Amino acid sequence: MARVIVVGAGVSGLTCAVRLLEAGHRVDVLARDLPHETTSATAAGLWYPYRALPEDRVTAWARTSYEVLAELAGQEGTGVRLVAGTEVHTGDGDVTGRPDPWWAAAVPGFARTEAVPEGWAGGWSFTAPVVEMPTYLTWLLRRVEHLGGTLTRLGMGGLPPGGDVVVDCAGIGARLLAADLSVVPVRGQVVHVEQVGLDRWWLDAGEGSGSDGLRPTYVVPRSADIVLGGTVEEGDWSRTPSPESARDILGRARRLVPELADARVLGHRVGLRPVRPTVRVERTGRVVHCYGHGGAGVTLSWGCAAEVTGLVHAEDARTA
């Protein structure tokens, strides 16, 4: 078995570390940012393949992750729950001709619905994992440590030497560490409001979101609060919440879910989605790359980790 260095302590890095440790490898995680400082900690944690391609590989990774997260749902300390919800669509009346989303095969119980708020034409409903990210990242780290892995904070100007294999899960940091300028930040701001008894998630992904300035609107209930989003600001590196964006998010979310009208604001967060033309999961020499997950880090995490583990094993078999 190999000595593996995993770079990055967000959801992708920690999940890869867990799978590699379970496969018997020695794993050390190196990261500039600790788990609760990463973009993953800011995510609303709703399973949904957002800003991630190619369609066939993303669907397969998302299906695997759905299955694992569904198994974790309800287990003490994971922060994972299965929550029913609806993605709504705009349109002129009948939307029965709208094709299913390309990722629908990854979702059990996917169904069309006309039970949508006023102002929307229809949608589809399904039950999806909702992951409370601070709790979940803590659970992943404890799993890594329980299996004998380590985590060390370390600033890096490039991928580290040492080890038999380096697994690059640096997210937006791959722009520097992998010298990959195709990775760009897509700034996402969220607002946390008090839990007002909401037990369903709601999403309006926006027609053409990210390509023509339209923004996704999502309302994701958690145990103690509700996460509202969002923004799609390509190339923006600012991690400072914008009051104007916050007002816009609140207005859109309250239109979608009127029950939020009097919900008290608890806080604001910003994360930088690591977007790339396609998710990169491949091996080049001693480096296995796993980055560019866009807004779907949680959604793809377990599927990508399984493929990463396979790539490490394949090289072991060739060099044995």
List the helices and strands and how they pair.
Layout: E1 3-7, H1 11-22, E2 26-31, H2 39-42, H3 55-72, E3 80-89, E4 111-113, E5 122-131, H4 133-146, E6 150-153, E7 165-168, H5 174-177, E8 184-194, E9 201-204, E10 217-221, E11 225-229, E12 233-234, H6 243-256, E13 265-284, E14 287-293, H7 297-319
Parallel strand pairs: 1-2, 1-7, 2-6, 3-9, 7-14
Antiparallel strand pairs: 3-5, 4-5, 8-11, 8-12, 8-13, 9-10, 10-11, 13-14
Helix pairs in contact: 1-4, 1-7, 3-7
Fraction of residues in H or I helices: 25-40%
Q: Rg to the nearest angstrom?
A: 19 Å
In CATH, the architecture is 3-Layer(bba) Sandwich
CATH topology: FAD/NAD(P)-binding domain
Keywords for this entry:
alpha/beta; about 325 residues; globular; FAD/NAD(P)-binding domain
